Amino acid sequence: MHIPDGFLNVPTLAATGAVSAGTVGLAVKVAAKKIGEKQVPLMGMLAAFIFAAQMLNFPVAGGTSGHLIGAALCAILIGPWAGVIIMSAVLIAQALIFQDGGLASLGANILNMGIIAVFGSYLIYRLVTKILPDTRRGKLIGGAAAGWTSVMFSALAAAFELAASGASPFAVVGPAMLGVHALIGAGEGLITVLVVSAVMASRADVLQMERI
Amino acid sequence: MRHSFLDQYSHLDSPVHWRDPRVKFLLSLLFIIAIIVTPAGSWLAFAAYFGILVAVLAISKLPLGYVLKRSMIILPFVLLLGMVNVFTRPGIELSSLNIFGWHLGITDGGLAFIGTLLARSWLSVLALIVLTSTTSLPALLKGIERLGAPKVIVMILSFMYRYLFLLMDEVLRMKNARDSRSVGSPSTGFQAKTVGSMIGSLFVRSYERGERVYAAMAARGFDGRSRTLDNMALNTVDVVTGIALALLMLLPLAWSLIR
């Protein structure tokens, strides 16, 4: 879902870049206020964690393999503002190290996978855990829903940006992106649930901490 | 450590490697923006951009095969999006396919579109590869910070770069342990479950390591800022090559816009 350079036009690049820069700036301020200098080593470590966790892929039907994106996981485990910062760092590094996603389209990619996915999935997680009883099962269902929606939200945002740039009409690119990502999202949801349950089993206190 | 795929050619010795990271970053950004702004179908301008890139690549001593292989990363995305457009763009129909009575016309507009898409995204990804393969990540991050990127993000990125190798080793050890315990071919569900608990314990280990690193740094007087002795300074060659290359890049753009 990383959009390379050359696909988006200048107005879309400028708009997504401005929104991303503003939101990341705000996230840095909010996080600095809540945990101060302690954020830097911990968040760097967690960004490295997301990066390393993405290396662990598992086979999906048809010879392809799935791996974690991590936006929902970040939002659930440490909170949306910290999640925005960590996902942005991961996306910047992916563009610079692996050329996964372009330099000029970085704003769009951060918006899709770092901002919309994090806040969208956090909203869903809070909603589900509020409706369902506060049990292990409720949290896990919330995690699954958050994982799936994080992927769907970012796919939808990417489809909108591609359509707005005139790369492809939305009637074509929208259903195509959502269709493919409905499956990828199922994998993300499954992994999110499994990681949340593993964290619950060994460090339940992390889930009870105040999120940033 | 059994992985060396991060900025692996950044320690070669060439005039491109010697340039200031800030100059290289700004030139790459300018190059990519120029390509995006160049109108569709300006093949001569795209060829000129390609010429500039080839010249820089030749000077940089980067292995050509490595660069080409790296750049193929964008192909699936281009083909996926391009295929639809070949048939839907308006234009003169050049050829058509009939699949089960379904008329698919290949238009010249469609071909121009996919050609432009391919040229733009390939040239951009090549520029990005030249930038990151001739600059070590710490130097690049320092350059970006000097250009005004938020300090916190840059510091998080440099922490991430420092600990990435450690966590990747951790992941490889976990993978080894898993593989030596899995006999035959376990079901996807079982494998996903294993990966889930592996990522779970990786999270806990990273989190706890982060806490320990912070405690150790606080004990040594960390106040949220990093201090280095490296004073990045632009020399005359950096400035001259920067300006010359920037003008050279703007020439094809200006030509394609006036035409």
TrEMBL record, chain A:
It is found in: Cell membrane. Gene3D superfamilies: 1.10.1760.20. Keywords: Cell membrane, Membrane, Transmembrane, Transmembrane helix, Transport. One of its GO terms (cellular component) is plasma membrane. The keyword Iron does not apply. It is a multi-pass membrane protein. It holds the Pfam family CbiM. GO terms for biological process: transition metal ion transport. The chain crosses the membrane at residues 7-28, 40-61, 68-98, 110-128, 140-160, 180-201. The keyword Transmembrane helix applies. PANTHER family: METAL TRANSPORT PROTEIN HI_1621-RELATED (PTHR34229:SF1). This is Cobalt/nickel transport system permease protein. The lineage of its organism: Bacteria, Bacillati, Chloroflexota, Dehalococcoidia, Dehalococcoidales.
TrEMBL record, chain B:
It is found in: Cell membrane. Keywords: Cell membrane, Membrane, Transmembrane, Transmembrane helix. Coiled coil: none annotated. Its main location: membrane. It holds the Pfam family CbiQ. GO terms for cellular component: ATP-binding cassette (ABC) transporter complex. GO terms for biological process: cobalt ion transport. The chain crosses the membrane at residues 21-37, 43-60, 72-92, 112-131, 152-168, 239-258. It is a multi-pass membrane protein. It comes from the Bacteria. PANTHER family: SLL0384 PROTEIN (PTHR34857:SF2). This is Cobalt/nickel transport system permease protein. It comes from Dehalogenimonas formicexedens.
